[in-house]
Design goal:
Elements lengths: L6 E4 L7 H4 L11 E5 L9 H17 L9 E5 L5 H4 E5 L18 E3 L1 H13 L5 E3 L10 E7 L5 E7 L5 E6 L5 E8 L2 E10 L2 E6 L3 E7 L1
Parallel strand pairs: 1-2, 3-4
Antiparallel strand pairs: 4-5, 6-7, 7-8, 8-13, 9-12, 10-11, 10-13
Helix pairs in contact: 2-4
Protein name: Glycosyl hydrolase family 30 beta sandwich domain-containing protein
């Protein structure tokens, strides 16, 4: 055990509610646990899956106390049938001259896969390595909505909220500070949309369906 740093799980495309209902730390003998392989093996990408990915990150960290989380494939070739559900982006090999798929990508070039990339991009940008997570008191632990808060290494408080449902959902967040927070929205076709400023300590935030928002203290 002295040589074991952590336990990892392949929770490929699983429902983020798994981390609400199952204990992945049992038997870990004090070592951290985290997901190190995530993708969707079958079907097509959907708006639900986009937000589910974001909630997987949040639920592993919030309910399993994971220190990190990994998507598996960065890029997949435009020629591969599984590229849409596996990859954060697509690249076109020089030999691929079939432009019926992803016609805007030139040979030898690549582009993002929005439903997968937008699910993780906000965490990449607003939750840098060595951020410290804060506990959040929730009135109820819901399957389609999640909140997580942290402070960056530079001391900036941030919180993320999601809405995996098909209806708008309103959060009331007590930030315990009179400072203002700037919002940034991500979603299946939305990348870092600026939402303006809200001033605390109590923030009322209505999140549209299939959305992830990051609120950063100014």
């Amino acid at each position: 055990m002295s040589y074991v740093d952590a336990w990892t799980y392949h929770r490929i495309g699983s429902d983020s509610n798994d981390q609400l209902t199952k204990d992945f730390t049992s038997g870990a003998l004090g070592r951290p646990v985290f997901n190190n392989e995530f993708e969707y093996l079958n079907g097509t990408m959907t708006d639900w899956r986009c937000i589910n990915t974001a909630q997987s990150i949040m639920n592993w960290m919030t309910f399993q106390n994971s220190p990190t989380w990994f998507w598996l494939h960065a890029l997949k070739p435009t020629t591969n049938s599984e590229a849409e559900t596996y990859a954060l982006g697509f690249w076109r090999p020089p030999s691929d001259t079939d432009f019926s798929r992803y016609p805007h990508i030139k040979p030898g070039h690549w582009d993002f896969n929005p439903r997968n990339w937008n699910a993780v991009a906000g965490f990449v940008k607003y939750m840098p390595w060595n951020s410290v997570r804060y506990s959040v008191d929730e009135s109820a632990k819901l399957g389609d909505q999640r909140i997580m808060a942290w402070k960056t290494p530079q001391g900036k408080p941030v919180f993320a909220i999601t809405n995996r449902s098909t209806s708008a959902f309103t959060y009331t967040v007590d930030t315990q500070t009179a400072s203002s927070f700037e919002g940034h929205r991500f979603g299946p076709a939305t990348h870092d949309l600026r939402l303006g400023l809200k001033t605390g300590p109590s923030l009322t935030l209505t999140v549209p369906p299939s959305s992830i928002e990051f609120w950063v203290r100014q």
